[in-house]
Amino acid sequence: MFGNEPTLFVFRGIFGIRVEVRQSLVLLALLYVVLSVGSMQGLIDALITVGLIVLSIYLHELGHAWGCRVQGVPVERIVIFGGGGFCEHRRSSARQDELIVAMGPIVNLILWAISSIWVNSVVGGLTSLRDLTPVMAELLYWANLVALINIALFFFNMVPVQPLDGGKLFYLGLLRVMPAGRALRLAGTVGVVFCVLWWPGLFALYWLTGWLLLFAPSFRQHLAMMRGQIGG
């Protein structure tokens, strides 16, 4: 879902890697603005939130890129769109893929930990919340949001469906303990279950948190995997 639409703009990011930003990212931003705005402050907050989400996704993809670089796998590009992002690289082995795939969620965990530790250290050093200056209170709010965004991205990415990292890691893990054909069918079966649960889960996530991400896994792909017809 999304990711193949026209490119909005291109730039060279960290490590000199080409970064393509797709048009559906604008749709994601507009959805947040429409659903959040009630005042000028609401508009500003919505735009900052989208910016933090995009930055977190970019750093997540840089984690994948780093996993490629340390193993000598050339990186082609990073693409960011309304449903998340992906790091495109040259062919790699299953063993190389384990580090490449794992580094994205690890980056999100690191960002969550850094933000959470800073927030807790500041709050823990106060005798009263009334000691907070308005500027520090604002910084704490956004730092806490960074922590929430990244822990949410971590759990989102660990759902065992393709092409999310959780689905890839699940399949790679199965390859270590069983033949490829059996691993493919089992990964596909689990993926089919989560595809069925996806839309109720996405609705529940928005209802409880107000968070949106324009992505849905392919039921057809996982059904084909379950039948052993395509690769993971």
In terms of topology, how is this protein built?
Blueprint: E1 7-12, E2 18-22, H1 24-36, H2 40-69, E3 75-81, E4 84-89, H3 94-124, H4 134-157, H5 165-175, H6 180-209, H7 219-226
Parallel strand pairs: 2-3
Antiparallel strand pairs: 1-2, 3-4
Helix pairs in contact: 1-2, 2-3, 2-4, 3-4, 3-5, 5-6, 6-7
Protein traits:
232 residues, 7 helices
3D architecture notes:
By secondary structure, the protein is an alpha+beta fold. The chain has a domain at 158-232. It has seven helices and four strands. It has helices at 24-36, 40-69, 94-124, 134-157, 165-175, 180-209, 219-226; strands at residues 7-12, 18-22, 75-81, 84-89. Strands 1-2-3-4 form a four-stranded mixed β-sheet. Helix 1 runs antiparallel to helix 2 (40-69), helix 2 (40-69) packs across helix 4 and helix 3 (94-124) packs across helix 5. The longest helix has 31 residues, at 94-124. It is globular, with a radius of gyration of 19 Å. The two termini are 17 Å apart. The mean pLDDT is 90.
Strand order of the largest sheet: 1-2-3-4
The description of the largest β-sheet is:
4 strands, mixed
The dominant shape is: globular
| Average pLDDT metric | 90
Order of helices and strands: EEHHEEHHHHH
Q: Segments where pLDDT lies below 50 for 5+ residues?
A: none
- Distance from N terminus to C terminus (CA atoms, Å) equals 17 Å
Tell me the fraction of residues in β-strands, as a range: 5-15%
Number of helices: 7
Radius of gyration: 19 Å
- Going by helix content, strand content and strand pairing, the class is alpha+beta
Helical percentage: 55-70%
Beta strands, count: 4
Protein name: Peptidase M50 domain-containing protein
Organism: Aliigemmobacter aestuarii
Membrane topology: Multi-pass membrane protein
Subcellular location: Membrane
